[in-house]
Structure formats: C-alpha cells, structure tokens
Specification:
Layout (H helix, E strand, L loop, with lengths): L2 E4 L5 E3 H6 L13 E3 L12
Length: 48
C-alpha cells in the first residue's frame, strides 16, 4: 500500500484513508498537498 505525507502537518496517511474521504485531502488538517513517501528499501543497480 502506498503511504503519503501531508505537507502541512507531516502526518503519514495510508492510501485506504485517502479513498474513504471525498477528494484528496489530509484527514487531520484538510490540506490538499500530499507527498508520496519513499520506500526504505535500498536498490543497487550495476552500471554497464
């Protein structure tokens, strides 16, 4: 599941919480700017 972070209050929001509300808004503060959280997995890619 995707995790999002509110720009104003910095609360982490699950994608299920976003689908429960009409529109895309933070459930705690109502702000509409959300960032997708980066995963903690480090990927190593070999160069050719």
């Amino acid at each position: 599941m995707a995790q999002y972070i509110c720009e104003r209050c910095r609360k982490t929001i699950d994608s299920k919480e976003l689908l429960a509300l009409p529109g895309i808004r933070c459930p705690s503060c109502g702000h509409r700017i959300l960032y997708k959280a980066r995963s903690q997995v480090v990927r190593e890619i070999r160069a050719r």
